[in-house]
Amino acid sequence: HAIGAGITLVEPQLVRAEISRAVRVVPEPGAFVPRAIVVCRGIGIEIWEHNLPEPWAEIQEAADAQGADPTLVAWVRAAQSLLLLRDGDFGASAHMRAQAVAAFEVSGNRRQACTQRMNEGAAQMLVGRYAFAEQQLREASAAAESLGLRQTAAWALHNLGFVLHRQGNHAEGLELERTALARDVEQQNLILRFVSHLYLAEMLFDGGSLELARAEAEAAVGLSALRPQGRGQAHAWAARIHAALGAGSDAVRFAEIAMVELDEHGNEGSDSVFHLALAESLDAVGRHEEATAAARLGAHKLSETADKIKDPEWRQSFLENVPEHAALLARAFPG
User: What CA–CA distance (Å, rounded) separates 193 from 207?
Assistant: First the structure.
């Protein structure tokens, strides 16, 4: 109950305290699965960054055993997907999300199956498989609306607008994203407002509406303290937009902040836009050799991330279908 209340009220310290306390308690007979779920929820909200709790190895082993409880399997697969995402293995993370969806459906938990389907769509976005992501997000959006899952419905709508844009449906993508933003304002959801402004900045930049993109990026930067792992990305996009507008000094300032944030807080996805933003910003002030060096460092890291994706079709999609990745490679190795 404390976990649910903490998430609903956006009280991460309460959630962390209750989960940490529960994990330290030796479970009563028959309480293994509930305790395992608590650990998985803790992984989901990033209580433990690198040192996972001692029960985690035992929990994974139990989930892999023949005839394992479907509820246990579902929660473990969801947690494993997130850990793979943090490690930069985007392909394996997406595959694990699909397993989580299937396991939640077997266990009869329609609400979590819906949420994980939305997460699977988001994972497919990261590897540039936008058509498949659209399918998952449409299904998740419809299910979330019927089940009354407001948060899941909101996230699905945000991501759906973005994937439509990335497939060339710019007008409908913008319409959905602006609809999502209006809902966020009505519901006073500041974190999702941040996400909306960031997505709108990216979409308007791609569409060539640079002044509108700048306004959205500045709004995202203003809200970014609410989401530390997204703060750097907001600054990176602000840098790209200012560089395209010819405001080189401002672009460099935003890009340098983005790199500091990347070092301190990491990022929710590929790091390529950070390196691309730095290269474009340095180009904008005439520091072309430094820009090339920044782009090539980013391209090297992008290649390392792509090498983790085992499926060759997915790896190609990751490198070619995600515009920031293609642009970074083109800047690093022109011609």
Answer: 21
Question: Rg of the chain's alpha carbons, rounded to an integer?
Answer: 20
DSSP one-letter code for 168 = T
| Contact yes or no for 41/3 (Cβ under 8 A) | yes
DSSP letter (8 states) at residue 225: G
Chain centroid to CA 283: 28
| pLDDT exceeds 90 at position 287 | yes
Among residues 274, 310, 262, which one has the least CA distance to residue 89? 310
* Residue with the two structure tokens 């083109």: 330
Q: Provide the strand spans (E) within 15-165.
A: none
Q: What is the DSSP letter of 25?
A: S
Q: Could you tell me the pTM of the whole model?
A: 0.86
Pair of tokens at residue 99: 């397993």
Cα–Cα distances in angstroms (integers) from residue 166 to residues 93, 97, 104, 160, in the given order: 21, 22, 29, 10
Contacts of 331 (CB under 8 A, 6+ apart): 276, 279, 280, 291, 292, 295
Distance CA 81, CA 74 (A): 11
Those residues with Cβ within 8 angstroms of residue 212's Cβ, 6 or more apart along the chain or in another chain:
204
CA distance 244 to 274: 15
In Å, what is the CA distance from 172 to each residue of 13, 144, 159, 207? Answer: 38, 20, 12, 13
- Model confidence pLDDT, tens digit, residues 187-201: 888 888 999 999 999
List all residues 6 or more positions away from 209 whose beta carbon is below 8 Å from its beta carbon: none
